[in-house]
Amino acid sequence: MDNTIMTYVSAFIVGGVICAVGQVLIDKTKLTSARILVLFVSAGAILTALGVYQKLVDIGGAGATIPLTGFGYNLVTGTFKEVDKLGVLGAFTGGVKAAAAGIAAAIFFGYLMSVAFTPKAKR
């Protein structure tokens, strides 16, 4: 039980630090939300390619894989696995295969929410 609590604490801290970095970027820069999104996904991909992000995932678990940086991690990890299996063709298919379930779930649940709730116009 003690190990489970530390797993939750580690995930909370790592995820919180990633989100805090995003909040600082929103508050202290003139970057748009879209640019911050691209920055986080790209940072996750680059750090994974350099072998740094895997260490963060080992420490923080879901706290590192759930935020946007985790999407970049997922793309690069999937690409590396498919390149090992298929060669150059895996560079084109790996990221798509690795992220397909998450993207499909986001589309599906987004659609369900749009059917279940009526949006209101902003004032």
Report on the architecture of this protein.
By secondary structure, the chain is mainly alpha-helical. The chain has one domain (2-116). Helix content is 84%, strand content 0%. It has helices at residues 2-28, 33-49, 53-60, 62-65, 68-86, 89-116. It is globular and about 50 Å long. The mean pLDDT is 92.
**Strand content of the residues, in percent?**
under 5%
Rough shape? Answer: globular
Mean pLDDT: 92
Uncertain runs are none
Q: What is the N-to-C succession of helices and strands?
A: HHHHHH
Rg to the nearest angstrom?
17 Å
Please outline the major beta sheet.
none
Transmembrane segments: 6-26, 33-53, 98-117
Keywords: Membrane, Transmembrane, Transmembrane helix
InterPro entries: Spore_V_AE (IPR014204), SpoVA (IPR005562)
Protein name: Stage V sporulation protein AE
Could you provide a short overview of the structure?
The protein has 123 residues and is mainly α. The protein has six helices and no strands. The protein has helices at 2-28, 33-49, 53-60, 62-65, 68-86, 89-116.
Labels describing this entry:
SpoVA, about 120 residues, Spore_V_AE
Write the layout of secondary structure elements.
Layout: H1 2-28, H2 33-49, H3 53-60, H4 62-65, H5 68-86, H6 89-116
Helix pairs in contact: 2-5, 5-6
